[in-house]
Amino acid sequence: MEVRKHYSRIKNITKATCTVQADGVGNEELALVGDRLAQVVKIVGQDVTLQVFGGTEGIFTNSATTFLGQFPSLRVGEDLAGRFFNAYGEPIDNGPSLTGPLREIGGPTVNPVRRLQPFQLIATGIAGIDLNNTLVAGQKIPFFADADQPYNEVMAMVALRAKTDKIILGGMGLTNDDYLYFKQLFEGEGVLDKIVCFINTTSDAPVQRLLIPDMALTAAEYFAVEHQQSVLVLLTDMTLFADALSIVSNRMDQIPSKDSMPGSLYSDLARIYEKAAQFPDGGSITIIAVTTLSEGDITHAIPDNTGYITEGQLFLRKDSEVGKVIVDPFRSLSRLKQLVIGKKTREDHPQVMNAAVRLYADAANARTKLDNGFDLTEYDERTLRFARAYSTLILSVDVNLDTEAMLNQTWDLFSEHFSREELGIKEQFLDRFYHPPVA
Amino acid sequence: MNNSSTGLVKGIIANLLMVEFDGPVAQNEICYVEHQGLSLMGEVIKISDRIAYVQVFDSTRGIQGGTTVRFNGNMLEVELGPGILSRKYDGLQNDLDALEGIFLERGIRSRALDPDERWDFEPLAKVGERVRAGDWLGQVTENHQPHKIMVPFRFKGFYTVEKLSAPGNYRAADEIAVLLDERGQRHSVTMIQRWPVKLPLNLYRDKPRPHKLLETGLRTMDTLHPMLEGGVGFVPGPFGSGKTVLQHAISRQAAADVVIVAACGERANEVVEIFTEFPELDDPHTGRKLMERTVIIANTSNMPVAAREASVYTAMAIGEYYRQMGLRVLLLADSTSRWAQALREMSNRLEDLPGPDAFPMDLSAIISGFYARAGIVTLHNGQEGSITFIGTVSPAGGNLKEPVTESTKKATRCFYALSQKRADSKRYPAVDPIMSYSKYLEYPEFVEYAAEHIHPRYIEFARTIKNILLRGNEASDQINILGDDGVPLDYHIRLWRAELLDFSILQQDAFDTVDAMTPIARQMEMVALVLEICQREFPFEHFEEVSRFYKKLINTLKQMNYSPFNSEAYQQYRRQTEDMVREQTQALQAM
Questions:
Q1: In this predicted model, what pLDDT tens digit does every residue of B523-544 receive, in sequence order?
Q2: Which of A97, A154, A323, B155 has the greatest number of C-beta atoms within 10 Å?
Q3: Domains located in chain B, CATH noted
Q4: What ipTM does the predicted assembly reach?
Q5: DSSP state, A335?
């Protein structure tokens, strides 16, 4: 490593940044301020502003600043597998140092004409996902969840059931408890050899989080492009990542846009999520993220911008009627499902899915009527019975079925509760699958 | 024009450079930053004293103070000529297929057109003829469509054709004509020319109001909220409400000669869908492959932000080029909000005083200036060409009161509001029939055209449908407040008439091969059938009867929509419908 000039006077210090006078410094270059890693974020004449990843507490105006002449990088190689790293890509599991070549993180974009259209279904066994919001390799999709919901657990379950070659976890602001949960789960399931983890916990400085997604995705690109593997990247919690962005932009006196977020939030998030891709040689990167919400508010800038970038979103909800956590069929959406449903799955899949959700919506209307004290019609009563069974047998996250079984289960419910006309499904499917109980 | 100015980088904030320059520099001039053997393209967006503020169309990682910047004397330009159709460009018109490797490495570029590609040329003008910029000199055949070779748009004043190549096979870069200007100077013309993207092309005689339907096969548009050739409209909607599916359906089905899709700051997989499917799908109007009439400008959300702004202008400039050939161009931009956000990012870095939501103060003017470039025009030779422009808007938080939506509303005539409520209940396309509008329904030119070319009762149909939907909506509100029993039976009838129209006309399955596209004649037949039912009185005694009857009708009409036009099945469902209506009516007479 070529060590460059030292500077010993710091002009300006904020909570996240400091400014030194220096020459010949490159934009985005790494530096050490004292013993803390920092990165150039702004150059105006000789004034060089650095964001200090570890925070600026205790930095003196005469602390030494050393520019390193390089950019944030990760050593990539097969020895990444089974390891736990911090935001700088340094081991935190007492294992050996990495030996592979250094690769700059946050690398260039995939040429869109070199991408393949995603085509491989990712089966999770959870019917609320596989039936209504089918996932496809190369997709990017977040869980939109309130803090009290079991999003990390459901995400871990999806990761373990999905048949992928690597699972890369990028943990941002994880509580120590959650970190240990993931660690013990991966060890206990005996899948450590296909796991790579980059962890920033709540006890680490928040600005460090900014490096986590790029670290995780650089490792993912290595396995997906150079080894043609299917890689699943888990990013939790992206809301805390965005909070860190706003801290830095705020310290740099940028004019905030909606919800105090930087005006570049959309581009900053898109740069990360768009790393999800199906590569032509068979490798793929799929991103499942978590965006925590404040009381379910999806109009906040973070979930709002995320929703415009990702290919759908998954909502969890506690269904008090049946006492289970379900995947909410109204607010959840997988944009890529159209590429596989009815093609990789049985052909009645799209129509069954839509009819079930529509009838479930009728049930929701019936419940509103009930709550408002109105009489229910006979049809309303049936939709309510259907909704209870559908919640328990299909939407609940503890379901584990293959898609064919999910479809058959739904037809059973249709046949039990509704007439042919009420389903609004093409005749050819009704003829094949509708089987009303003999009166 | 000057091309010798150079400068030195003095400051860097993300992709904004401050460059101290010598010599003259123009606003919006293109420059190149010389960094480690790469030349990174940028555009001047502000000049203050000796400092030019440059937005770089690439990553600025590693650029240092003191780096050399070369200004090139031109604004951002597109290269125009045969061979544009079917190509996939980035926002700066690099041919994406011609770029090596899986990743878009920094600083790589490729040429938009192949100068060595050969074309069969046929002259249209004559030696000795007086011509001016935009006039047709000859034509070649591009993807089975005539492609005019025109007097370069930059040429000012009148010229005389001194030499024109005979019919034959030529390279795109070969001289095909020599023009003599009024001072006697000779100018060589090839099939390729260049034009600055930010300058509107105004080489036409006049620009009348739009008056012809642009058929899309989407019932909620064609029947209820028509888009016209040369019209402007926009589609705002929260995420998940089906903006992209709707745009793709329009791009596949619209009756246009050339379709330009500008994917501006959106998901890469959506562009990949077009790349993958369009070469396979048939153009419903010509039977040729859809890709043959399509140009894609892909500046996806992870590509450099500054190029996002450029991408919509690149798309518009290419559109104007094809309009000048007398063709019907459809331009779709998804999404103009991302473009506005790119403007916001830059104005923020420039420390301009912010307007509402931190957007630049002139956002509204920029948007309306851009939409104004669309339109139908009469060329100097009397031919008509048009650019129909439909942009999507991604309102922050789904709030239609935000600045981009409001500015766009002022600049457009058609408003296709996507509603979250409709999307949640899977009523697709989720275009809200109450909020949405097409002001073209009020244009006397169009009213006349519609009666003559679409259906004598076209306008009346549209008004009646809207009215029934409105009344249904009011009835639905009352029922929700007062309960099924708390309102007169008539309210249920009103509600279900609206539901009948909603399910059989407005809703359309974009993924079904038959239902996805309904030709206008079929739409009119269906509308006449359904409206006739809506006008009938039936002897209902209880509100449950009402819903039962209309649900049965809806089911049959949906099956009819899924059946090929005038097929056996179609006729059978039609007869079933008529039988149901007759039985119900006879029940009334029996009473």
A1: 999 999 999 999 999 889 899 8
A2: A154
A3: 6-75 (2.40.30.20), 112-194 (2.40.50.100), 219-436 (3.40.50.300), 458-590 (1.10.1140.10)
A4: 0.89
A5: G
